[in-house]
Amino acid sequence: MNSLKIQGIVPPMITPLADMNTLDVAGLERLIEHILAGGVHGLFILGTTGEAQSISYDLRKELIERTCSQVAGRVPVLVGITDTSLTESVNLAEKAFHCGAAAVVSAPPYYYAPAQQELIDFYHGLAEVLPLPMFLYNMPSHVKVMIEPATVRAIAEHPNVIGLKDSSANLVYFHSLIQIMKDRPDFSLLMGPEELTGESVLFGGQGGVNGGANMFPQLYVDMYNAAVDKNITKLNELQEKIMFISNSIYKVGRYGSSYLKGVKCACSLMGICSDYMALPFQKFNEPERAKVRQVLEQLNIEVVNP
């Protein structure tokens, strides 16, 4: 069994961009320090929130290098290696290893949907050649296949597979994972949707990979701690705030990417980093930006870049 145990709040970091193939380096540095100052337990780069599939391999590798260098072991860094090519996934993992990352994260190959046995074979083959331990990433809305609980159990027999991030927003599925993995305390189950993280931790999950922690890291750390302590009164209070953020910042405009546009817009308004979006997406225009600004003001967050 692998000794690395990831738990707590591990924000899926946005990727600050100056343009389509250039990092907003100063913004990246501010963002990392802003997130770490909230007391988070790890950092996940090149996930869905990080627009990984929309940016070049060179840019992904630069982000890995800069992030690992700046974090400098203060928390574990997890690196997304999801790809349609196993070779490219391994290449990213090798870069992550050499830069000092703690683990990698892989969603199923997308485009053609693999069968469950194909997933088992794929992940066992990938885990065998990776230089770092691996988290599975269940993201059926984006990759068209659910990693079924029995499949998770089979894949987890490989010692290099140490956990799973679930972004299905399906609590029945998550409870099934808790039940089927109950004899594997070394295997971490992390919830993606922040709206469900508190509840998932109460029932045995190990934490959350919550996009809102780009903006308000302390809020999500406090929520996790309240759930661990089974402080239901405190958890209800924090859940109310988390749901307000979800129903406002993430619902601006009629876009499949409204959540991501909202997070980037808020970070820009807070003076942390650029809100440039990788193509084909576009950042919010002024009317939408004004709505996010209004929400931040309601939350008593200072807007320094109106």
Topology of this structure?
Blueprint: E1 8-9, E2 17-19, E3 22-23, H1 25-37, E4 43-45, H2 57-71, E5 77-80, H3 86-99, E6 103-106, H4 116-129, E7 134-138, H5 140-143, H6 149-155, E8 161-166, H7 171-180, E9 188-191, H8 194-202, E10 207-208, H9 217-228, H10 232-248, H11 258-269, H12 286-298
Parallel strand pairs: 1-10, 4-5, 5-6, 6-7, 7-8, 8-9, 9-10
Antiparallel strand pairs: 2-3
Helix pairs in contact: 2-3, 4-6, 6-7, 8-9, 9-10, 11-12
Describe the structure.
Helix content is about 45%, strand content about 10%. With about 300 residues, the chain is of the alpha/beta class. The chain has a single domain, classed as TIM Barrel, CATH 3.20.20. The strands form two sheets. An eight-stranded parallel β-sheet has the order 1-10-9-8-7-6-5-4. The protein has a two-stranded antiparallel ribbon with strand order 2-3. α4 (about 115-130) runs parallel beside α6 (about 150-155). The chain is globular. The chain starts with 7 loop residues before the first strand and ends in an 8-residue tail after the last helix.
Notable characteristics:
about 300 residues, alpha/beta, TIM Barrel, 8-stranded parallel β-sheet, two-stranded antiparallel sheet, 10 strands, about 10% strand, globular
CATH domain class: Alpha Beta
Radius of gyration: 18 Å
List the quaternary state of the chains.
single chain
Largest sheet: 8 strands, parallel
Q: Assign a percent range to the helix content.
A: 40-55%
The CATH architecture classification is Alpha-Beta Barrel
**Count of spatially separate domains:** 1
Poorly predicted segments: none
What's the pLDDT, averaged over the residues? 97
For the largest beta sheet, what order do the strands appear in spatially? 1-10-9-8-7-6-5-4
* N-to-C span: 50 Å
Order of helices and strands: EEEHEHEHEHEHHEHEHEHHHH
Report the principal-axis shape. globular
Question: What amount of the residues lies in strands?
Answer: 5-15%
